[in-house]
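Fig. S4 source data, part A: sequence.
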Amino acid sequence: MSGTERKPSLKERFMSLFRPQDEEREDIHYRGKPMRRLLEYLKPHRKVFILCLVLVLGLTGLELVKPMIIGQAIDRYITGESSEILQEEGREEWAPGERAEERFRGVLTAGGLYLAALVLLMILNRSQTLLLQKMGQDIIYEIRNDLFRHTESLTMRFFDITPVGKIVTRLTNDVEAINEVFSNILVKLFRNVVKMAGLAVIMISLNPRMALYSFILLPVVAALTLVFRMISRKTYRLVRTRLTALNTFLSEHLSGMKVIRIFGREQKKYDEFEQKNASLYNASFREMMVFAVFRPGIYLLSVLALMIIMLTGGREVLGGAITIGTLYIFLQYINSFFEPIQELAEQFTTLQSAISAAEKIFTLMDTEPDIAEEKSPVLLPEIRGKITFDHVWFSYTGREGDWVLKDVSFEIEPGQSVAFVGATGAGKSSILNLIGRYYDVQKGTIRIDDTDIRLMSREQIRRAVGQVQQDVFLFTGDIASNIRLRDESISDEEIREAAREVNAARFIERLPDGYASRVTERGATFSAGERQLLSFARTLAYDPAILILDEATANIDTETEQWIQEAVARLMRGRTSIMVAHRLSTIQHCDRILVMHHGRIRESGTHQELLARDGIYKKLYQLQLS
């Protein structure tokens, strides 16, 4: 298995239960109390939860009563002396046949009570299960909504450094992992504790000495449970960490499958996947080993306790200290006493896994946006489109040595068209990102209509700024939904009008289903030019006051180039327009051109003015002509 993680032997896997793994040492875990935060989601559903606890009390009581019905039936009607029955019935003598008939009726009565208890158990159990499952799904729905809403509020810096697969894992696998906490675990924990307490009380009341024999192995059970808890939490964290790594790998490489095939790296990527898959396999096997040691251990202790009761109880029956019915009750109770402990093993497994998932969920929820919005932001009655950069310094990392923009100042009047040109890495696209406040500057001020954008509502800014990028992203759905982006305030007629204005209607109306035509992921079935036209239509439908074109006319096919040029001209009409383009022929008509070099504005003027200066712009222009 070249290049992959070796599958360890069974002995190595067992010994690994007691050794920390690399991910355990390096991973930074949530420092708060995840269980307490999970229980906060239970508060709105507390009435349902309390009702479920009441049902649990009824269920537990019925389970405790069942062995007593049979035990008393054994003593009274099967092995009981006739004198006892005569005394209870207040009669001096029975005829032989009458005695047998009366005992048979007693057995039938006991059987009827036992059947009634089973039916009532089924009804209560079904009611509890339905209520718990409904409550659990409601809570998971709320958590997933809260998590996605918070993820949407995070800034672009977070998405720059966080793999998509990691976020997807938090929203899907990790959220689903805590479902059992609300739909099963909490109530079962309560049920098992109540059941064990009830069993202990009844056993002590029946025969304290027999109860003492029954509980003699409890210290061993407690020690084994403590060891299991210490090991299991680290194990489940490791599984969640490696599952996240695998999902991140899949998300990235499935999106980049075309590149993998172009360069013939299928085997190499398969080896990488196999290594991550083996890591998850080994972590999951380690989790299974933890459970495989604990559950059989508890079962072995329950068998030993049963043997102790049979030996001591048999001696007590032969000595006349207890009845056979009492021995039967103790045998049933000892099984029932260890059954909750065995269930606790399974519940520990799920609970530890859920807590590990909750730690990762709340770590994401506690991630604060890098950009803080004012509690009472300034809302302009109308955005005209004036943009001012006042001595702006900016770095993506926030470190002063990594400046992308250095002391940049300029002003764009409403309705003016301005283009930024320069070599790759000069800072052109960074200026566009700052106008939409996807990042905050470290020094200086950016103003829209003479108002600092840090004091404005981000929603109003982004509603006023329409940005068309070179890499157009289309969502799965249809053409109409990709233009309106689920904004139902944009009517179908406005969608058609926007498409006609930017020439997108020319190819849309030729499709069999028109605006209802299906769009696959990323719009793979459309050409680059068609995707660009749809992006123009999307921007125009939102009618922004400020238009940003980031290499929007690059990488298009010749057939639709003229359509796009016409669409750009119509989009820019009556709007403040900012363009970034490497092809200087597409920006010659702009009112002003700013030349960027190493994060600074080196030249400013019209196309003709810059050519006359014999500077950076002229060299770029001549380079393209040549």
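Fig. S4 source data, part B ends here. The two ends are 54 Å apart (CA to CA).
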